[in-house]
């Protein structure tokens, strides 16, 4: 197929999984010779945490005062204005990576300003506010094609929502994430007061979906036998409000006698610059991802590429691509199970870094993901051509 003009839309400049997916996909599609533009809402002075090798259009957004509904509405409006101003109808493919951008495209489609759009569902959330739930629903119901990053979500879209979705998985950059140490490793350990460990790393901040409270309970058990152990909770830039859950975690840490801060038993980094992440993965002795719900769990592959053992929830999507040779399993609803898995990973993980892990990583490249996306784009273009002639 000739060069396509592709617009990829992502909801935030922050390093969330869906945003990483968008930027890596943009890079891989550009490498295939396509003309890619990334659209992203940004307040004055904000830029993407990592710049892709393609055109980026920042949709100016005024930081909304008030609740999540106002914030989402402001970002939908920002997308709509930017797309209209940059000739959205001229793109061969308009591809939303989230509900916010999906709603902007749904509105333009309803107005006849674009011919259709694609949507990737990374995961779905439950919101108490009916308007947020309606926006989430519209973003996939009005899409002409729906992709998911794991079979778990493809099955749910098909069974629960009657959406004919199909799976196009993530990739991992094994050049960026590797076990090769560099000068950043010592700098990261010094910056966050990582004093020997062992170091348990969790990425994604403090969130109920990430099951951070259960991990804290499990870490307290681990630390009773390994008193020098440290838990590092990295990242956490999010558009959603997790303050109440964070306060519960801080209170529970105090009750468990766990101090928080650099050089302390629990290190909460907050949002981090992109350059430190590979060194942070290498500095950890184990990555814990005991989420209650995930779209794919990209950081698992990044940790394994860095030579770091992983403990993951024994639920899909992890069960779809991991096995006993590539991870340690834990019941995310049982802190003792999480603790036992962490100890197993720290002592003798059983993870086969010589054969099984390289074979796993070889299955998930961004180049392969881009080629799968191109298959989907061809189907979308062919379907659109039939409808417009």
UniProtKB/TrEMBL annotation:
GO annotation, biological process: lipopolysaccharide biosynthetic process
Gene Ontology MF terms: glycosyltransferase activity
InterPro entries to which the protein is assigned, alphabetical: Glyco_trans_1, Glyco_trans_4-like_N, GlycosylTfrase_MSMEG0565
The UniProt record lists the keyword Heme: no
Keywords on record: Transferase
Residue intervals of the Glycosyl transferase family domain: 190-349
NCBIfam families: MSMEG_0565_glyc (TIGR04047)
CDD domains: GT4_PimA-like
Species annotation: Paraburkholderia xenovorans (strain LB400)
Domain Glycosyltransferase subfamily 4-like N-terminal as annotated: residue spans: 16-176
Official protein name in the record: Glycosyl transferases group 1
Pfam families: Glyco_transf_4 (PF13439), Glycos_transf_1 (PF00534)
Residue ranges the record marks as coiled coil: none
């Amino acid at each position: 197929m000739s060069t396509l003009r592709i617009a990829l839309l992502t909801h935030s400049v922050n390093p969330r999984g869906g945003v990483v997916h968008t930027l890596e996909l943009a890079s891989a599609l550009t490498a295939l010779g396509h003309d890619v533009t990334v659209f992203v809402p940004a307040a004055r002075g904000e830029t993407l945490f990592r710049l892709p090798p393609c055109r980026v259009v920042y949709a100016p957004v005024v930081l909304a005062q008030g609740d999540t509904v106002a914030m989402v509405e402001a970002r939908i409006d920002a997308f709509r204005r930017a797309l209209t101003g940059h000739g959205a109808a001229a793109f061969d493919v308009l591809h939303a990576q989230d509900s916010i951008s999906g709603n902007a495209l749904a509105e333009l489609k309803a107005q006849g300003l674009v011919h259709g759009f694609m949507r990737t569902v990374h995961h779905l959330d439950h919101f108490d506010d009916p308007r947020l739930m309606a926006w989430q629903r519209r973003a996939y119901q009005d899409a002409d094609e729906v992709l998911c990053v794991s079979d778990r979500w493809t099955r749910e879209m098909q069974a629960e929502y009657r959406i004919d979705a199909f799976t196009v998985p993530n990739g991992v950059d094994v050049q960026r994430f590797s076990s090769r140490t560099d000068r950043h490793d010592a700098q990261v350990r010094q910056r966050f007061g990582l004093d020997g460990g062992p170091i348990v790393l969790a990425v994604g901040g403090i969130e109920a979906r990430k099951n951070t409270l259960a991990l804290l309970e499990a870490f307290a058990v681990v630390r009773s036998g390994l008193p020098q152990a440290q838990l590092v909770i990295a990242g956490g830039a999010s558009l959603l409000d997790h303050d109440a859950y964070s306060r519960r975690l801080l209170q529970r840490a105090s009750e468990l006698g766990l101090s928080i801060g650099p050089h302390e038993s629990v290190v909460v980094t907050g949002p981090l610059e992109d350059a430190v992440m590979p060194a942070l993965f290498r500095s950890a002795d184990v990555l814990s991802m005991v989420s209650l719900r995930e779209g794919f769990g990209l950081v698992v592959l990044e940790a394994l590429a860095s030579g770091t053992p992983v403990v993951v929830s024994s639920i899909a999507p992890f069960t779809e691509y991991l096995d006993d040779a590539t991870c340690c399993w834990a019941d995310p609803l049982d802190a003792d199970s999480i603790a036992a898995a962490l100890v197993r990973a720290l002592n003798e993980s059983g993870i086969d870094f010589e054969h099984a892990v390289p074979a796993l990583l070889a299955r998930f490249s961004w180049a392969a993901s881009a080629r799968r996306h191109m298959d989907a784009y061809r189907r979308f273009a062919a379907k659109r051509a039939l409808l417009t002639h």
